[in-house]
Design brief:
The protein has about 120 residues and is an alpha+beta fold. The chain has one domain: Protein of unknown function DUF952 (ADP-ribosylation fold, Alpha-Beta Barrel). Helix content is about 20%, strand content about 30%. The strands form three sheets. Strands 1-4-8 form a three-stranded antiparallel sheet. Strands 3-6-5 form a three-stranded antiparallel sheet. A hairpin with a 5-residue loop joins β5 and β6. The longest helix has 10 residues. It is globular. The relative contact order is 0.27.
Length: about 120
C-alpha cells in the first residue's frame, strides 16, 4: 500500500497553513476531531461527494509514513479504510501541492496519483 495520502483543500485555507507552518484542518476536520485524507483510490470519489462543482481547490499529497502514530486508517464510507490524522499536519510531510481544476465535464481533473 502506498504511503502517499491526499487532502483536497480550498486554496485560501492552504495558503494560510503555509503562512502558519502547519495545517489544522478545514472546518469539517476541526468539527470531527481529525483531518480527513483519502488514498489514491478514494480521492476522486471524495472530490465528487464532498467538493462537487467547487473551484479554487488544491490537491495536497502527503507522505503518510512521516506522520507517525497520529495517522490512523479507520472504517468510513462504504466500509473502506480511510486515513485520518489526529493532530495538525506538519508541512514537512507534504510531497507536493497541485491545483485541482474542474474539467469541461464538471469533474475535477486529477494529476497522476501514486498507486493508481
Amino acid at each position: 500500500m502506498s504511503q502517499i495520502i491526499y487532502k483536497i483543500v480550498p486554496e485560501r485555507l492552504w495558503r494560510e497553513a503555509e503562512r502558519n507552518g502547519s495545517f489544522a484542518g478545514a472546518p469539517i476536520d476541526v468539527a470531527d476531531g481529525f483531518i480527513h485524507f483519502s488514498t489514491a483510490g478514494q480521492a476522486r470519489e471524495t472530490a465528487a461527494k464532498h467538493f462537487a462543482g467547487q473551484t479554487g481547490l488544491l490537491l495536497v499529497a502527503v507522505d503518510g509514513a512521516k506522520l507517525g502514530d497520529v495517522l490512523k486508517y479507520e472504517v468510513s464510507r462504504g466500509g473502506a479504510l480511510f486515513p485520518h490524522l489526529y493532530g495538525p499536519l506538519d508541512l514537512n510531510a507534504v510531497v507536493w501541492v497541485q491545483p485541482l481544476p474542474l474539467g469541461t465535464d464538471g469533474l475535477h481533473q486529477f494529476p497522476a496519483l501514486e498507486a493508481e
